[in-house]
Amino acid sequence: GALLGKEAAMFLPSGTMCNVIAILTHCRSGEEVIAHRTSHILTSEGGAHAAFSGVQILGLAGERGQVTAEAGRAAMRPRARYAPAQRLLEVEQTANIGGGTVWPLAQLEEVAAVAHGEGWATHMDGARLMNAVVASGVTAKEMAASFDSAWIDFTKGLGAPLGAVLAGSAAFIAEAWRWKQRLGGGMRQAGICAAACNYALDHHVGRLVDDHRNAKILARGLRQLPGVAVEEPETNLVFFDPAGAGLTAHELIQKLRLQGVHLSLLGARVRACTHLDVTEAMIEEALAGIRRELNGR
Ligand SMILES: *Cc1c(COP(=O)(O)O)cnc(C)c1O
Questions:
Q1: pLDDT confidence bin for 297, thresholds 50/70/90
Q2: CA torsion, points 43, 157, 111, 178, in degrees to nearest 10?
Q3: How far is CA 65 from CA 22, 60, 62, 235, in A?
Q4: For residue 104, how far is its CA from the centre of ligand 1 (angstroms)?
Q5: Interval between CA 76 and ligand 1 midpoint (Å)
Q6: What is the H or E stretch that residue 290 is in?
Q7: pLDDT for the residue numbered 258
Q8: Ligand 1 pocket: which residues have CB below 6 Å?
């Protein structure tokens, strides 16, 4: 709660459950959530919000996974009986599929102001919020300030085995507790799990700069490979497309897996993720493997 500058918070097993419970608490079925079209809630949660809340999600376009205040305004529907009632604006800090990009504080404040002006609530998916904090020097509290609810994950770059925390007003969290209980998120094991998360907050936030540096090293190495299109990383995610070098993202990932280098496929792009189990030496190894596959294609 204090980290995110909110009155109250609850411990949950996963980030997905934070999004599910937040949307269940903010919205009623048939209402609309406004988010970037690549957002995790839209692309990567198995249709959870259609299944549980019965909301529809309006996916907006925008550079690098972020939406502007103008895009938010343009998304507003007339208050007519034909139109779904719009209830919630959601943002992702950092924007995962957007490239692990960091929303500037001013842009977060602007889109939240547009939403609040229209009577919508605001929610921040902060799966990698601490990466954004370390990369920008803006505090988590400042970033979450214009959002009615926000959460952070302890199992991404922070490296804990389990856990996420959803924060908001006391009234919001009290209501959210009903959903937590109903979904089986009330855990007798919460204490021991939360202890690992506390450890991560104490020891694994400062070191995120190492992940960001490794991401830059990887991007620099990839850029030296002819035909590979590389997006400049802002945090710990490196997106690239090797198609110009003669292998599709899918083919390259398959080949690298056999060498013990694990990369993800996101659409036609490869996503590499640097984290506390990846050393600079391993980055060099991964680069050597990628070079080998592209030369030997
Ligand atoms: C990983 C992720 C989630 C879901 O978190 P889990 O803890 O894996 O359930 C939500 N949003 C974003 C942006 C993520 O990257």
A1: low
A2: 70
A3: 21, 9, 6, 14
A4: 20
A5: 27
A6: helix 280-295
A7: 94
A8: 14-16, 40, 92, 96, 125, 127, 153, 155-156, 164
Residue 220 confidence (pLDDT) above 70: yes
Are 150 and 172 in contact, with CB atoms under 8 Å apart? Answer: no
- State in Å: Cα 16 to ligand 1 middle: 6
Alpha carbon distance 132, 138 (integer Å): 8
Residue 75: partners with Cβ closer than 8 Å, 6 or more residues away:
34, 58, 60, 86
**Mean pLDDT, range 242-258, rounded to an integer:** 95
Best mutation site among 11, 44, 236 for ligand 1, i.e. most ligand atoms within 8 A of its Cβ?
A: 44
Residue nearest to atom 5 of ligand 1 (CA): 15
Q: Report how far residue 225's alpha carbon sits from residue 245's, in angstroms, rounded to the nearest whole number.
A: 8
Cα separation of 154 and 15, whole Å?
A: 9
The one-letter code for the residue type at 294 is L
Q: Which two tokens stand for residue 43?
A: 């692309």
